[in-house]
């Protein structure tokens, strides 16, 4: 499944398992959930196409090897794939790296410069990128940024300059209901409920329960000022294409909510 | 050759060299009667040494079960070479989405629950120190060993590769603990360390821990746990204090 966000940037989507029972949604009835519906935390990859070259950001999980290969092939066709960027070597993000590079042996593997054990992830020969590095695809330039809110130390965020799209990887993910797959947030019924963001960050970014709220809030201010994006394309949520900085501001409420409530639950 | 941690838990020590410092990328072996259970499987980088060590330790029979703390490659890199993809070896993991984690045939353990594996009882603990969301700490009720995956690690010097904590001069140093957690649990820069400490207090109150078995550090003997925790707290405080938001 995929959808064009803007010409030249495609969103590639993997649903993963229905989380309704695991998250005890029927019993807990969080504000964002509607009884009787299924709920998913998606896995997303993004394809950026310039005039000259193409770039894939993340790979989906090993459960979707055929899907990512077929979708990328459909989208790039004879142009082929020039860059495969791994945001971090977590299985659901990087699990198809080998399969994609087998299909596109001339593609350059791009990996975060951060961390110190690339060899343990088969990333020692990758092109390493750090904050401020960029790749010009011809008419589109992607830029790399030190990942702020992360789990793995070998991590990187990305932006695309022309469309001012921020790819914040594990940050700003959230669940969606069954029929909301591949909808933009502005296409959802009703007002976006911040409890979706709380559900995700209270489970997946497990360390949110321990944060210094003032410091984290200040960091979010810095991120809004630094990026001020038009579009936010998370790895585990729906794409936000309207009023994006306001959703970043919502993350302050998320921080405070988890500080008060504690851990929402586990993902595993 | 393994290193004994407790009467029935052995350490399969492997190191990754960062230049003048080393980082362990280890696994553990639990003996339960005639059965052998591995906790984690190590990195592909050490595959030959690990399969050889496990082969030696099991007289060529291999393990009966593998319990994974999580699917991260340095922990799950040798599942297949150790037989974890066969019917002869039970594979246990915590993920709520095993297919997405590349472990479609794993028996699921519930974080917060307990499970008997080949007849031995393990508890699965939501870890305060980890580098992936689906990580579980694993507590062995047989010998009271807490397997802490990416938490409670340390860098070490050449020559300390097979030391238990009590074999260090003055125990594992605060600097070694600090440098490991600074580099690998980067998110500690945002935390209030006392919140992490409260969770650790609860875990150590609930479980009678005789030894700590980290993947990325030297095993910590029971008598050294309080000293390690004090040094860990100092390290967490330093990591948080050193990071200032622009």
Automatic annotation (TrEMBL), chain A:
Any Pfam family hit: Lactamase_B
Segment forming the signal sequence: none
Source organism (scientific name): Natronoglomus mannanivorans
Record-annotated Metallo-beta-lactamase domain positions: 42-236
Domain of life per record: Archaea
Protein name in UniProt: MBL fold metallo-hydrolase
InterPro entries membership: Metallo-B-lactamas, RibonucZ/Hydroxyglut_hydro
Automatic annotation (TrEMBL), chain B:
Domain Metallo-beta-lactamase: 24-195
SUPFAM superfamilies xrefs: Metallo-hydrolase/oxidoreductase (SSF56281)
Protein name according to UniProt: MBL fold metallo-hydrolase
InterPro entries tied to this protein: Metallo-B-lactamas, RibonucZ/Hydroxyglut_hydro
PANTHER family per the UniProt record, alphabetical: ANAEROBIC NITRIC OXIDE REDUCTASE FLAVORUBREDOXIN (PTHR43717)
Family matches, as SMART domains: Lactamase_B (SM00849)
């Amino acid at each position: 499944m995929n959808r064009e966000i803007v010409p030249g940037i495609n969103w590639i989507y993997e649903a993963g398992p229905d989380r309704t029972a695991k998250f005890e949604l029927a019993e807990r009835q969080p504000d964002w959930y509607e009884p009787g519906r299924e709920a998913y935390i998606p896995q997303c990859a993004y394809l950026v196409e310039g005039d000259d070259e193409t770039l894939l950001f993340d790979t989906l999980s090993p459960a979707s090897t055929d899907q990512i290969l077929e979708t990328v092939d459909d989208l790039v066709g004879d142009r082929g794939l020039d860059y495969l960027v791994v945001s971090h070597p977590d299985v659901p993000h990087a699990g198809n790296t080998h399969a994609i590079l087998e299909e596109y042996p001339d593609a350059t593997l791009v990996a975060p410069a951060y961390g110190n054990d690339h060899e343990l992830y088969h990333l020692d020969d990758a092109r390493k990128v750090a904050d401020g590095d960029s790749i010009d695809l011809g008419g589109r330039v992607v830029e790399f940024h030190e990942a702020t809110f992360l789990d793995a130390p070998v991590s990187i965020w990305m932006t695309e300059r022309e469309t001012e799209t921020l790819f914040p990887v594990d940050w700003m993910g959230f669940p969606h209901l069954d029929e909301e797959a591949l909808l933009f947030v502005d296409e959802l019924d009703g007002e976006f409920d911040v409890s979706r963001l709380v559900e995700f960050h209270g489970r997946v970014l497990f360390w949110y329960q321990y944060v210094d709220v003032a410091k984290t809030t200040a960091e979010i201010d810095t991120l809004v000022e630094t990026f001020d994006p038009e579009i936010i394309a998370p790895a585990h949520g729906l794409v936000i294409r309207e009023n994006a900085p306001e959703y970043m501001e919502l993350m302050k409420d998320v921080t405070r909510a988890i500080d008060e409530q504690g851990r929402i639950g586990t993902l595993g | 050759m393994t290193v004994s941690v407790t009467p029935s838990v052995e350490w399969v020590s492997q190191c990754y060299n960062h230049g003048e410092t080393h980082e362990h990328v280890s696994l553990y072996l639990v003996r339960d009667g005639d059965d052998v259970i591995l906790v984690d499987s190590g990195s592909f980088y050490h595959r030959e040494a690990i399969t050889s060590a496990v082969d030696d330790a099991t007289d060529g029979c291999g393990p009966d079960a593998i319990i994974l703390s999580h699917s991260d490659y340095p922990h799950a890199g040798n599942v297949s070479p150790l037989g974890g993809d066969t019917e002869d070896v039970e594979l246990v993991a915590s993920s709520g989405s095993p297919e997405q984690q590349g472990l479609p045939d794993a028996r699921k353990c519930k974080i917060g629950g307990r499970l008997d594996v080949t007849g031995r009882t393990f508890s699965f603990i939501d870890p305060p120190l980890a580098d992936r969301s689906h990580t579980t700490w694993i507590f062995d009720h047989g010998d009271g060993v807490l397997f802490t995956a990416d938490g409670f690690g340390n860098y070490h010097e050449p020559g300390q590769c097979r030391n238990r904590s009590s074999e260090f001069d003055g125990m594992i140093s605060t600097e070694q603990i600090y440098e490991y957690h600074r580099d690998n649990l980067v998110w500690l820069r945002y935390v209030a360390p006392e919140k992490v400490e409260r969770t650790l207090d609860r875990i150590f109150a609930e479980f009678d821990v005789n030894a700590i078995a980290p993947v990325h550090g030297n095993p910590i003997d029971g008598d050294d746990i309080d000293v390690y925790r004090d040094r860990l707290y100092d390290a967490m405080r330093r990591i948080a204090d050193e990071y200032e938001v622009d």
